[in-house]
């Protein structure tokens, strides 16, 4: 069962007509123009600057970005990219964009069933891809069953509970 | 917060419709300032705590109301989807944010965030 099905089932009961429009028409102008053309990133708002980008398809909407945050639990995500400047040729190679989930300077991030569509990389940490979509076809999407970034930024130095859990010692 | 829908453009009265904002995939172009939507759809601030269920933030990708453009694809430029900055507990259950430019979901300087069944589409 996909999250897409789960969520739309919910929609179907209350917004039947709207559901039809969502499934039937999807527009995608990026990268003509790209993600930072209309709204340049603003540091004060902690926006993504797309600094790591070297290709045109890198400058596209991030489905989910977690930055400077801790203890975030995601139970099911469907993050989709269907077009490149309204062309669907990129669906053949499942690479309409380069990155979809960005985890920046964060810890204790738990992602259950993150599913992406046509993003060459499902997850990047601090701008570096850590989970490619290659070989992770999962029906309509590409995804993982579970992914976590659990490293604490400042691990406890005493014999704290977390330390005991990690190394299995007292 | 239950069953709330954001809609940016694509419908009567928005001034972001097919007559001015039709897609232009065959020419290289920048962002047409006539077709700008919102800076941000939803801001959950650092002092907030909220439970949300069945919410959909939609930046219109096609015209709904205006003839002869109904069903035709349009380019509406919306900055950001949802920004979560809370440390006090946030639950999003069955939400969707679609077609913003920089991000659809961003969790920033936040802690204790639960995102269940989220969906997004790139702009």
Description:
- The complex is a heterodimer of chains A (170) and B (123).
- With 170 residues, chain A is α/β, with parallel strands linked by helices.
- Chain A has one domain.
- Helix content of chain A is 16%, strand content 34%.
- Chain A is built from 3 helices and 9 strands.
- In chain A, strands 2, 4, 7, 8 and 9 form a 5-stranded mixed sheet that branches. In chain A, strands 1-3-5-6 form a 4-stranded mixed sheet, with no helix packed on it.
- The radius of gyration of chain A is 18 Å and the shape is globular.
- The N and C termini of chain A lie far apart (42 Å).
- Chain B is mainly β and 123 residues long.
- Chain B has one domain (5-24, 33-121).
- Helix content of chain B is 3%, strand content 41%.
- In chain B, the strands form 2 sheets. Chain B has a 4-stranded parallel sheet, with no helix packed on it. Chain B has a 3-stranded parallel sheet with strand order 2-4-6, with no helix packed on it.
- The longest helix of chain B is centred in the first third of the chain and has 4 residues, at 18-21.
- Chain B is elongated, with a radius of gyration of 16 Å.
- The two termini of chain B are 25 Å apart.
- The relative contact order of chain B is 0.24.
- The model of chain B has no long low-confidence stretch (mean pLDDT 97).
- β2 (70-80) of chain A pairs parallel with β7 (111-121) of chain B, so a sheet runs across the interface.
């Amino acid at each position: 069962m996909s999250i897409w099905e789960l969520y739309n089932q919910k929609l179907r009961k209350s917004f039947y007509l709207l559901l039809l429009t969502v499934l039937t028409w999807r527009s995608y102008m990026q990268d003509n123009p790209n993600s930072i053309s209309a709204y340049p990133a603003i540091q004060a708002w902690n926006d993504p600057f797309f600094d790591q980008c070297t290709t045109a398809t890198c400058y596209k909407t991030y489905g989910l970005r977690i930055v400077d945050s801790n203890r975030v639990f995601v139970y099911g995500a469907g993050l989709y990219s269907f077009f490149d400047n309204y062309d669907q040729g990129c669906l053949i190679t499942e690479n309409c964009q380069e990155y979809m989930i960005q985890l920046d300077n964060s810890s204790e991030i738990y992602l259950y069933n993150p599913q992406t569509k046509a993003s060459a990389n499902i997850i990047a940490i601090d701008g570096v891809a850590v989970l490619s979509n290659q070989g992770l076809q999962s029906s309509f999407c590409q995804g993982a069953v579970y992914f976590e970034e659990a490293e604490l930024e400042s691990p406890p130095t005493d014999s704290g509970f977390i330390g005991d859990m990690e190394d299995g010692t007292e | 917060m239950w069953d709330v829908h954001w809609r940016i453009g694509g419908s009567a009265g928005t001034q972001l419709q097919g007559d001015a904002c039709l897609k232009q995939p065959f020419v290289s172009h920048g962002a047409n300032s006539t077709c700008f939507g919102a800076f941000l759809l939803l801001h959950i601030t650092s002092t907030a705590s909220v439970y949300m269920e069945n919410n959909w933030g939609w930046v219109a990708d096609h015209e709904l109301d205006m003839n002869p453009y109904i069903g035709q694809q349009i380019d509406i430029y919306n900055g950001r989807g949802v920004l979560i900055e809370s440390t006090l507990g946030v639950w999003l259950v069955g939400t969707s944010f679609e077609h913003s430019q920089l991000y659809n979901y961003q969790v920033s300087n936040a802690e204790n965030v639960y995102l269940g069944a989220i969906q997004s589409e790139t702009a």
